[in-house]
Amino acid sequence: MTNAPTLGVEEEFLLVDPDSGAPVAKNRQVAEYAAEHGVDLQLELTRCQVETATDVAHTTADLRDQLLRLRRVASGAAEQAGARLLAVALPPTLPTEFPVTDTPRYRDIGERYGMIAHEQGICGCHVHVAVPDRDAAIDVGNRLRPWLPLLLSLTANSAIYRNADTGHASWRSVLWARWPSAGPPPHFGSADEYDAAVQMLCRAGVMRDDGMVYWDVRPSADFPTVEIRVADVPATVAETVLFAALVRGCVMTALDDGRRGEPVQPLAPYVLKAAYWKAARDGLDGDGVDLENHGAAPALTLAERLVERVRPALETAGDYEMVSTELARIAGEGNGAMRQQRVWRRRHDVSDVLAEAAAATLEAPS
């Protein structure tokens, strides 16, 4: 047991045909098979997706075990349904359609948002970290904004889409930005100001309901947590654990800065937008925007700098050595986007990308 706040993780997965790799509309069947093994899968907007959710975890070791079990059960359920489960943020193959899941809410979203909803197939990863209250969650969101692009670079896993190299490490984040309430959160002065903004967006018809607050950091509507939603679903369990550990370290650091009255770093919207685009384009093996020195810097250098910035929190949680080791491993072996691009460039055959993604999905952490 550590003195660190608890955390939990939600991962979204794509269901594809085992032979062609095309998305298949089998989420209900997969969920039914998973339930027989004690795992409750959530149905996503399209019928080609399912979502897992861990129980509350106190340590990243516990989180790792839960994530691996959930992926294995969901993968087995997909196999029973004649599908394959992939931890990819977008379909590598050319989909014919993304049928919307047949619930009243999802049907309404499909009708309201048209092709934004029907061209989904987007899979992300959401980390919940316990915070004292909603005002603390809002303050954490304000303080995390400069770190969000780097967290996107770290988890980028959508380089190949529609049988083509997108030229981006995270094409998911580019597509996701089309939703009117997606992307980095605005700066809010309080939870009341946040609530007023959400109510305005709903009254104006921009959002159907408050469940469509898709900002990359938001106070959870259901739990006493702050939810960080910036990531592509990582390719491996080890990468998800690294992401979750870093997120918790960032949240703990932000809470500590808030308690000490440290000022929030000012950040112009155009600068943050530029940093997001650079992260989506270059990923972990290129340059990011150095928000301290106002220039470009290798993303890995920025990642190492972030680890040192939040090191006291990581040490409190018992995660510093794991994070340092895992970051070094990913630097050498590559994250999801780097793996996709590497196998694609061998012979431009999407079957290689599908095989790589399938292996990574169930890869056991070392």
UniProtKB/TrEMBL annotation:
An annotated GO BP: modified amino acid biosynthetic process
MF (Gene Ontology): ATP binding; glutamate-cysteine ligase activity
Catalytic reaction annotation: L-cysteine + L-glutamate + ATP = gamma-L-glutamyl-L-cysteine + ADP + phosphate + H(+)
EC number: 6.3.2.2
UniProt xrefs under Pfam families: GCS2
Keyword Ligase set for record: yes
Entry keyword set: ATP-binding, Ligase, Nucleotide-binding
Physiological role: ATP-dependent carboxylate-amine ligase which exhibits weak glutamate--cysteine ligase activity.
Cited HAMAP family: Glu_cys_ligase_2 (MF_01609)
Record family assignment: Belongs to the glutamate--cysteine ligase type 2 family. YbdK subfamily.
Protein name: Putative glutamate--cysteine ligase 2
